[in-house]
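Hey, sorry to bother you again with one of my protein questions. A protein chain has come my way and I'm curious about its shape. It would help a lot if you went through both lines with me. I owe you a coffee for this, so here goes:
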Amino acid sequence: MNQDNPDSEKTERLLRQFYAQQSKLRGYIFSATRNYHATEDILQSVAIVTAQKASSYDFDKNPAPWFIGIAKNHIKKWYTSQGRNSRNVSLDILEECISDYSNFESDLIANRREALNTCIGKLPSKQKEVVRLRYMHDKSCHTIAEELKRPIQGIYSLLKRLKLELRKCVEFRLKDMEARP
C-alpha cells in the first residue's frame, strides 16, 4: 500500500474489499437487471463511486452493505434510463440472497456461456442478427421489426423458436462437455 498518501491508501484498501465482493455484487446486479452489459456497466460504476468516496468511508463498518446500496441506486437509474420501473424487482429480496451469488462466475456459467456462443455462431446470419439486436443491443421487438422491415409477430415467433433451439443446443453441448474427460 502507498504510505505516502493516506487517501490513496484508503482507496486501495476499499477497492480491495470491493473486488473481494465483486462476484456477489455481479450476481446481485444481474439478478436485478437480467442484462449482462448493464451488469458490467453498473459494476464499473460501483467501483468508480467506491474509489471516489474512499477517503470519507468509515472503515469500522462492513463495506458490503454500502456496495449494495451503491449498486441499488445504479440499478434504479438503469431502470429509469430504460423507461422501465424498478418497483417490479424486489431489490431487498435479492439482497437477502446475496450469499448465493458467491459462485456466480462458476464453471457452469462459463461453460454455459461458451456453449451458447457456439450455438449462436451456428445460426444463419439473419437469425444471428435478430439475436444480436435483441440481446446484445437490448432493442425491443418493435424496433427490430422496423429496422429489418419485418412484421413484429414474425420477430416474436422467431425469437420464441430461437430460444427453444438455443436451449436445446446449449443443453446438448453441456452434456457433451460433461461426457468428455
